[in-house]
Amino acid sequence: MKKVTINSVASYAGVSKKTVSRVLNNEPNVSDATREKVLKVFKELDYTPNPIARGLAQNRSFIIGCIYDNPSKSYITRVQTGALAACQGNNYNLLIHPCDLRGDALISNIEHLLHSSRLDGLVLTPPFSDFKVLVDFLKRKKIPYARVASAVLEDDSISVRSNDEQGAFEITEHLIKLGHKAIAFIKGHPDHSATEQRFKGYRRALSTHGIEFNERLVEEGNFSYHSGVDSARSILDLTPRPTAVFASNDYMAAAVLKLATQRQLKVPNDISIAGFDNAPIARHIWPGLTTIAQPVEEMTKQAVTKLIEHIGDPQEQPYQVTLEARLITRESTAQVK
Amino acid sequence: MKKVTINSVASYAGVSKKTVSRVLNNEPNVSDATREKVLKVFKELDYTPNPIARGLAQNRSFIIGCIYDNPSKSYITRVQTGALAACQGNNYNLLIHPCDLRGDALISNIEHLLHSSRLDGLVLTPPFSDFKVLVDFLKRKKIPYARVASAVLEDDSISVRSNDEQGAFEITEHLIKLGHKAIAFIKGHPDHSATEQRFKGYRRALSTHGIEFNERLVEEGNFSYHSGVDSARSILDLTPRPTAVFASNDYMAAAVLKLATQRQLKVPNDISIAGFDNAPIARHIWPGLTTIAQPVEEMTKQAVTKLIEHIGDPQEQPYQVTLEARLITRESTAQVK
DNA sequence: TTCAACCCTGACACCGGTGTCATAATGTGA
DNA sequence: TCACATTATGACACCGGTGTCAGGGTTGAA
């Protein structure tokens, strides 16, 4: 396989390489005849421009970085799927970069990443989406970025989220309509803005339906399965035991289910359990978890698509969208007895 | 932030850029004094070489591609973790590229990927690790590659695997020692070489312990949760019902567990269930699954590390390693009654 | 002392594209 | 028909590194 460069194309087509470059980039000021001719040579020689050389000349890498620090692997997988879908159509690549939110070295870590890989932009996934220190840093350095699933919509950035508060409201209301009054709640990781949003939705549903909020029914989790086990223990030990548990994600809900089952409780007859996210595990266990389906892939895909547009044309408008979350009822919730 | 290039370093240190380049690449023939001086300037100016420029000059991209077509997301996640660990220390990046094994366009898809992204090498994960068409193509094109979890060790390539056959043998033997004689088996995806290996281990354990192999106890799955449900249905409908089921991965085992539980069977009292891989789900459900822990991260890390070495020095020896798989017993298997 | 061998160093071309600017070709209005 | 604007094209430098090679300085053996 001999290499086909812009020079071979140029000499073969009998034009200068600058003209080939013009055709490549759809620039104006090329006659139709010349453009046709060059395009034909592209096909004949099966020419693909070298992204590295382009990158060097334009100081671009055609790579988007995706940074994350998330205990939920399935969430990350879904984020990647969405991001890849956006990259593939645009000749962009996706570089994945796990890192510590809490580490003091975070900023210098990111700085090194940007510097050494010359990323064109960054996708911020929770909990980075609302991490002010980082966002401010990127703004100051003028690094293009897009935020996925952040709580707040700013005016001047790309941000795609889903309505966590409303989702939590709906699933709590679902439990209330099944007759539940004592509904325990397991919070997510304090660094994630979704944690606060979901909690708000839970409280709004309670107050909408005239149920008094009870502090003792709330446990602090961190989205990990393990934290769900700890929270579940506290909740199941309460007397009287709540008739329902709403965990801020499916992993923690699965942990509640596991512990309840270990303790010979029947789900949903003895206790109803609801989760959030519609992670694969929600349908891999018995009983299947009632949960809220978040369009994670779609959110990320839109965010990355807009990010790439923005990189190509920095004048591009900001983009602020909220997608809908959807209630999915399965076997883990039932009428209270 | 002003840009620090090799030129600034060179003029600041009072040497030519070639000398700076020599220091950068640890080349010989630089006096200690000069080397020290340049290294000091690196620090003072906080210089990081531009990988794009290096890539252009050396016709390298410093990117490893990881291709996969795997229903098990958690497997992919683990592969990524291992690959990233190897990349990070070596200033390499990881590009992830899902694609269809069965598509006729596979080769041209990969060809385009290689051509347009100038990948330095490829990590082949199952089922690509043993996909002859692709391996032959890469060999012919002289693209460096490493295989993870392939069934066969070749002489001239980088390949890191774990002992699937032995793992399957051990877990089957574990069941046999618990008194099980009618042990159903669910096969994996026919494209994956692990499928055959695990089946072999199962049969070897049976014959070692003088148990006759029974074709009717074997179901065809494909590693997906869904296929596990179908297989589970057939198995649980058998009369007499087997006292144990060994599924070729944890997702399918989880499906068996779910269906058995739905049918009011007690696991492990009424039926024992064993899986393979030690996926997260194995410990997220109740009862936890007895399974075989494969060092997926470690396999991938070693494979990628060797791949990067090989790229840097094509004379590098081939590398053929088999890591050990380990039996993990949880609550899903018990003495037969 | 002499000369080859070796070590260090820098000048320069090159990787494969893009940006800038000059120039040739064409079009337009008076 | 001429002056001037506009379009099409190419020459050339440049992005930030690396490869090649030549030349000056040392060293060691003859």
From TrEMBL, chains A, B:
Bilayer-crossing regions: none
Pfam families hit by this protein: LacI, Peripla_BP_3
Domain HTH lacI-type: 4-58
Record has DNA-binding as a keyword: yes
Protein's name in the database: LacI family transcriptional regulator
UniProt-recorded Gene Ontology molecular function terms: DNA-binding transcription factor activity; transcription cis-regulatory region binding
Coiled-coil ranges (or none): none
PROSITE patterns: HTH_LACI_2
Keywords: DNA-binding, Transcription, Transcription regulation
